[in-house]
Amino acid sequence: MESKSGTPLQNRQKFRAPTPKRRTPPWQVKQDRVVRKLHVVHKYDEMLTSENKEFIQQFITDTYGPQTEEYGLKTYKHTPLKQEPLLRGTWFEDCRRSGLIGIKIGVVPQWYTNGKRFETTMIQILDNHVIKYYPPEKFVVNKKKYAKRFLKEGQLGCLVVGAVNCDPQMFTREYNGLFTEAGVMPKKLLTRFPIHPCAAMQPGTPLYAAHFKVGDVVDVTGSTIYRGFQGVMKRWGFHGMPASHGVTKTHRRPGNIGAGGEKARVWPGTKMPGVMGNKMRTLRGLTIWKIDHKYNVLYVSGQNIPGEVNSFVYVHDTVLPRRRLKESPRFPTYYPEDYEENPLPEEEYHPKVFNFSDPTIMFEEEKVVAKKK
Predict the structure, then answer these.
(1) Could you tell me the domains of the chain?
(2) Is the pLDDT of residue 168 over 90?
(3) Residue 104, exposed/middle/buried by CB under 10 A (0-12, 13-18, 19+)?
């Protein structure tokens, strides 16, 4: 680097990995209003008085209902559907239905009935609602996001699902307008699930953890933990060079990246240093071992679901050919009014999982044998 006078200057700034850009989907409008001051992002300040804030809060309560507590968290009461629900379709094999948006809240162990321990990940389903339905003729497929073998152009529509209710003051007017048809509070996150038209649901329909059954096999998608710029030992698991005995300044380097001869170049796909993490990855073929209907929590097999704790994940029926649904699920979703006579229990266990409310030791009654005289 040189100054205006031509004098060389030293650049001693530490290199930092560029922050990944957040690309808003083309079907979604701008969500937040921010103000930049001296390269620092600040939330938009409305400059409201205390009286105005009370008035706005009262208007929110009148529109969306009183604030209540559901699943152990504060939220607003679910608003009724503005329109009559759509007619329920008929399930068929290989039918695609909606998924759920969950929050990864931790890893806990479970035990089989034979005493063997295994790990499960807890995924909580918070304030999931159907926001909008796009029929197949209006569904624009993102071919870069979905693999060709999972797409059926012209046959699949999509459902826009939102999760986690938020204060409308946090978002722009355009973003709040997306939820007018559904009649629900603005959501923190929106996503699309490709579905068959028979699995369509009316906007405003709530979705619960009971959307799935115990024993169902699901796929979970999430964003991996962002690690920044990492070397080959951290990024790819290389062993590195020896610590001594003639090794100089190459202890953590990759070594040769391209020999001579016909190769004579760095081939595409060579494992090298770079930005690690912040990639959407899917873990397939996970079994649901337990469902907590009181707090809307799914207990899914495995402890390596992508994402940090408290990050969003997407749960949907598996696409693995040999593990797809063979019997009809709760289609198109779980409706509480269908189970008023026989409500679901607070906790539902897989038959192979041990329930700690069950007795562990059984004693048989002693048989009294009459003594011979």
Answers:
(1) 47-225+276-349 (2.40.30.10)
(2) no
(3) buried
CA distance 221 to 318: 11
User: Mapping DSSP to helix (H, G, I), strand (E, B) and coil, where does residue 348 land?
Assistant: strand
Rg (CA), the chain: 27
Rounded CA separation 24/19 (Å): 15
278-305 per-residue burial string, b: 16 or more CB within 10 A, e: under 16: eeeeebeebbbbbbbbebbbbbbbeeeb
Residues 315-329: what's their mean pLDDT?
Answer: 90
Residue 170: phi, psi to the nearest 5? -80, -15
> Taking a C-beta distance cutoff of 8 angstroms, is the pair 187, 162 a contact?
yes
What single-letter amino acid sits at 78? H
Length of the chain counted residue by residue: 373
For residue range 200-223, list pLDDT tens digits in order.
999 988 999 999 999 999 999 999
Contact 120, 140 (CB under 8 A): no
Place of tokens 């001296």: 38
